[in-house]
């Protein structure tokens, strides 16, 4: 999506070798009209997939997921992050964050994901793919059909998307970064 690439080049800030800061429109301050256009574009790519539910994980995936759900006219569910709990009315998975170097439990209450759903997973970033793998695991537990994932920014050099695509998963990204360093971002 050209508008996103332009925006990343103007407003994005590369921190070290791995982190792209987009706090001015996506991760801290939000540009609602732009987020809506991104949600519409992700929804468009899955128009014919029969999506009945959008799934993301708190916190920063929620805003784009909401724009996608609004466009498709379906509910949006976000997995909650919490310390290990013993509830049994939830699907549960564990994700390891390379950025934060810690594991966290994610849970979705069973009644919000059903075996007759067709699910579209949405997230803001795809890096190593750990968050995505956790969400896929939860979809599998529910027995729902997984249509694929829509991502705002794929950091291709961290190879999460490559692994998941190799397993047959459909992943659509609005912008894919091949390589980056401070002052220089190269799109795929
Ligand atoms: P992975 O899920 O793809 O394996 O990535 P990783 O563990 O590295 O990411 C952990 C968190 O950092 C995720 O948010 C992810 O969205 C975010 N993240 C990953 N790479 C970048 C980046 O280059 N820039 C920014 N701004 N964020 C990045 P989270 O832990 O789920 O936290 P939340 O902020 O959504 O609450
Ligand atoms: Na984040
Ligand atoms: Na995220």
TrEMBL record:
Binding site for 5-phospho-alpha-D-ribose 1-diphosphate: 127-131
Keyword match Ribonucleoprotein: no
InterPro entries named among the record's database cross-references: PRTase-like (IPR029057), PRTase_dom (IPR000836), Pur/Pyrimidine_PRTase (IPR050118), Xanthine_PRibTrfase (IPR010079)
Enzyme class: transferase
E.C. designation(s): 2.4.2.22
Record-level GO BP terms: purine ribonucleoside salvage; xanthine metabolic process; XMP salvage
Any one GO cellular component localisation term in the record: cytoplasm
GO function term, MF aspect, one: xanthine phosphoribosyltransferase activity
Protein keywords: Cytoplasm, Glycosyltransferase, Membrane, Purine salvage, Transferase, Transmembrane, Transmembrane helix
Regions that span the bilayer: 59-78
Subcellular location per the Swiss-Prot or TrEMBL entry: Cytoplasm
CDD domains: PRTases_typeI (cd06223)
Primary site of residence: cytoplasm
SUPFAM superfamilies, alphabetized: PRTase-like
Pfam families (alphabetical): Pribosyltran
Superkingdom of origin organism: Bacteria
Pathway: Purine metabolism; XMP biosynthesis via salvage pathway; XMP from xanthine: step 1/1
Binding site for xanthine: 20, 27, 155
Quaternary structure and interacting proteins, as annotated: Homodimer.
Protein family according to the UniProt entry: Belongs to the purine/pyrimidine phosphoribosyltransferase family. Xpt subfamily.
Functional note: Converts the preformed base xanthine, a product of nucleic acid breakdown, to xanthosine 5'-monophosphate (XMP), so it can be reused for RNA or DNA synthesis.
HAMAP family, sorted: XPRTase (MF_01184)
Protein name per the record: Xanthine phosphoribosyltransferase
Organism (species): Heliobacterium mobile (Heliobacillus mobilis)
